[in-house]
Specification:
about 750 residues; alpha/beta; seven-stranded mixed sheet; five-stranded parallel sheet; EC 2.7.13.3; Sig_transdc_His_kin-like_C; phosphoprotein
């Protein structure tokens, strides 16, 4: 061919490619999405026929279009389908790569339903490699995601896969339990294939558990379903399972009959697979491709000979160049394989870390739920203990009974403090502690804390000394409640471990930047001190100097852990200096913002004015299912000259409020039937003005939003202090009487 003809042909090819690219660029996105769906659908048909290579080719076409239009969700789903085909054609490493890509895209697009499917296939892959613990982790992650997405129908297949793993591990009891759940779900969602396999595998598990009659019944039922619905894979598995069971029952005739059927069907399935995966066909395709390429090369050589010797030399050099490039390509291919294996290992480890993270998060959530439940179960009887103790102390007990009642009160208060400490630690660890900054007088606050602890100090013959730096202002903006809690813990700790000594509480200015002060708090004692070995773990939960110290001085070992957590929340630091036998000094520094002295208004003492209210027609409804707690609440109200009706469930509470006029309802939360929250929601549909207090033993902070949404006016946590209860009730009744007077 002449040189001008070459140029013309090249020009026409270039124009055609340009026009083709423009047409592609302007093609409608919706049409491309339809093509993706068509390719995926066609691939599904081809997979069912066993035409795996064409199925994979159509999926790769769909993947290319999905990448072109930036549809990452479809990309992830297609990678999962490709991995499934690769696994069928025995390319596990390639399947692993595809599953890793799928998982990355599905996490990026929050496609958790398809991520669960990917986890399920990943579990099947690891099962085939006999990596059973890893497989179970992926199956567990798949179930968790399906449950979160509300896809119960897909859990049956995961349960079935888990059961197969437990059969391989020889844990037939667990496998049996998993298969029972699978059968229930498969029947519910009409999943014939899963149901058939579940019956057959139940036969295997029951056979190993020596329940031959039920094993035979299950296996036959599964085989019958597989034959009716023409599922060759499960038919084959059913034949082999029945053969094993009959052999164990010494029915060798039926055993051999089913074994022959299994071998015949296995050969048929293998022939079908060979027909679709024939290496000869691949070799034939390669040979034909090479022959075609060789013929084209010969034509070009003939044309080159017809032109001139220079063209022939150019052709030979081109062939040499192609050979060199081929060698380079082969080298790059090998290097790429090495890098691919390394990446696969990294992706595998990354996925394992993600699964471990999800398990840790689940464990943390379980721990929080456990603590919430235990808290309620402890607070409810504790309300009875503290309430009855206070009532007995108020009823002029005999002199010989008084020490016992005081001991009981101390034990109840100690248990309540312990419960609150555990909850505080849990909240600090979960980062659920919120700051409540307000303007307060720091000098008076610390002085009040020292004064409040002076009686405890006197019991140990300890002198408290308080020093406040003159260069420090008095008022700051901060969370004064948490500062008080820190000081109470540290000073109380010093009092506990000091006898016949002194404790110094000092506040100094560490540094200042405009209105921001770093204040240094020092709590020094000359008590028993702490060894250097024990100082390293002093701020850990349940840590004390020794078991002997714990027995002698008491305490739970949670106080210092709470202190450290609160100081870190306040952006501060804490230090400890101590020497055994010479005392200890706890030093912490926190930043505080200076604020001008606020105008203080005095508030009336509600308890002194309680008798000024007209209580004649006050009606209170107590909703409480615990009989002891009913009695305690009734007696507390009677002591306040208030009388009440009592019901023990939410349904009766709603009926009473509809029938009678009440001023206040004291509503328990956990009750048989409808809960206190549900009952309050119902009452709010017909009475918006009624005062309803939540009288509850649950952790208030965790339920605050739920209480607000239900329509409670206030919350009283059980067990409560009687003064706090009276104060809240007084404020509400006073407010109601003022409203009635103004009307």
């Amino acid at each position: 061919m002449s040189q001008p003809k070459y140029h013309i042909v090249a020009f026409l090819v270039l124009i055609s490619m340009t026009l083709f690219a423009q047409n592609n660029a302007t093609e409608d996105i919706d049409i491309l999405k339809m093509r993706v769906e068509n390719y995926i659908t066609q691939s599904g048909f081809e997979t069912e026929r066993g035409d795996y290579y064409n199925a994979k080719e159509n999926l790769e076409k769909a993947l290319a279009i999905a990448k072109q239009i930036g549809d990452k969700k479809s990309e992830g789903s297609i990678h999962t389908k490709i991995a499934k085909v690769q696994f069928i054609v025995e390319e596990p490493e390639n399947a692993l790569v595809s599953l890793t890509k799928a998982a990355e895209l599905q996490r990026e697009t929050n496609d958790y339903a398809n991520l669960a499917i990917t986890y399920n296939i990943r579990g099947i892959l690891h099962t085939s490699k006999k990596e059973y613990p890893i497989a179970l982790d992926y199956f567990n992650s798949a179930k968790t995601k399906f449950e979160e997405e509300g896809l119960e129908r897909l859990i049956a297949d995961v349960n079935l896969n888990e059961a197969k793993v437990y059969i391989e591990l020889g844990d037939y009891k667990t496998a049996k339990a998993k298969l029972e759940k699978t059968i229930i779900l498969a029947k519910k969602h009409d999943q014939i294939g899963v149901l058939s396999s579940a019956y057959i595998n139940s036969g295997k598990a029951l056979h190993k558990l020596d329940n031959e009659d039920l094993a035979l019944s299950m296996a036959k039922k599964g085989l019958e379903l597989a034959i009716t619905n023409n599922i060759p894979e499960y038919i084959n598995d059913g034949y082999l399972t029945l053969s094993d069971i009959y052999q164990a029952n010494e029915d060798y005739k039926l055993s051999n009959e089913y074994l022959r059927k299994h071998i015949q069907l296995s050969d048929s399935l293998l022939d079908i697979k060979r027909e679709n995966l024939s290496p000869e066909k691949k070799a034939q395709f390669i040979t034909e491709y090479k022959d075609s390429e060789r013929k084209q090369m010969e034509v070009k050589l003939e044309e080159a000979d017809a032109s001139n010797n220079l063209t022939r030399i150019t052709t030979i050099l081109s062939i040499a160049l192609i050979t060199i490039l081929s060698l380079l390509t082969l080298s790059l291919y090998k290097n790429n394989n090495i890098r691919l294996k390394t990446n696969n290992m990294l992706h595998k480890k990354n996925d394992e870390l993600i699964v471990a993270k999800e398990k840790a998060e689940l464990a943390s959530k379980t721990k929080a739920n456990f603590l919430s439940t235990v808290t309620h179960e402890l607070r409810t009887p504790l309300y009875a203990v503290t309430g009855l103790t206070n009532m007995l102390l108020d009823e002029e007990p005999k002199p010989d009974q008084l020490p016992h009642l005081k001991s009981l009160k101390f034990s109840g208060d100690y248990l309540l403090t312990f419960i609150n400490d555990i909850l505080q630690i849990n909240k600090i660890e979960a980062n659920k502690v919120d700051l409540d900054p307000e303007v307060f007088n720091l000098q008076k606050k610390v002085e009040n804390v020292v004064s409040a602890l002076s009686n405890s100090a006197m019991d140990n013959n300890v002198q408290l000394h308080y020093e406040y730096d003159d260069s420090l202002p008095s008022t700051f903006i901060a969370d004064q409640l948490k500062i008080s809690q820190i000081l109470i813990n540290l000073i109380g700790n010093a009092i506990k471990f000091t006898k016949d000594g002194d404790i110094w509480v000092r506040l100094k200015k560490h540094s200042q930047t405009e209105d921001k002060y770093i204040i240094r708090f020092e709590i020094e004692d000359n008590g028993i001190g702490i060894t250097k070995e024990k100082q390293e773990n002093m701020f850990e939960s349940f840590s004390q100097g020794s078991i002997q110290i714990n027995r002698k001085y008491g305490g739970t070992g949670l106080g210092l852990s709470i202190v450290k957590g609160l100081i870190e929340i306040l952006k501060g630091k804490i230090y400890l200096k101590s020497e055994l036998g010479k005392g200890s000094t706890f030093v912490f520094e926190i930043p505080l913002l200076y604020a001008p002295e606020p105008v203080i208004t005095t508030k009336p003492k509600t308890l002194n004015e309680f008798n000024t209210l007209d209580l004649t027609n006050i009606k209170i409804l107590v909703v409480e299912d615990n009989k002891i707690n009913q009695m305690i609440t009734r007696k507390i109200l009677n002591k306040m000259n208030l009388y009440c009706d009592v019901v023990d469930n939410g349904e009766d509470a709603v009926d009473r409020v509809q029938q009678e006029q009440y001023d206040v309802v004291l509503m328990d939360i956990h009750m048989p039937g409808i809960s206190g929250i549900e009952a309050t929601k119902i009452i709010r549909t017909f009475d918006k003005e009624l005062t309803i207090f939540a009288l509850t033993a649950v952790t208030i902070e965790d339920k605050m939003q739920e209480f607000d949404e239900a329509g409670f006016d206030d919350i009283i946590s059980k067990p409560f202090k009687q003064e706090d209860f009276e104060k809240k009730l007084y404020n509400e009744l006073k407010s109601n009487q003022k409203s009635a007077t103004s009307i």
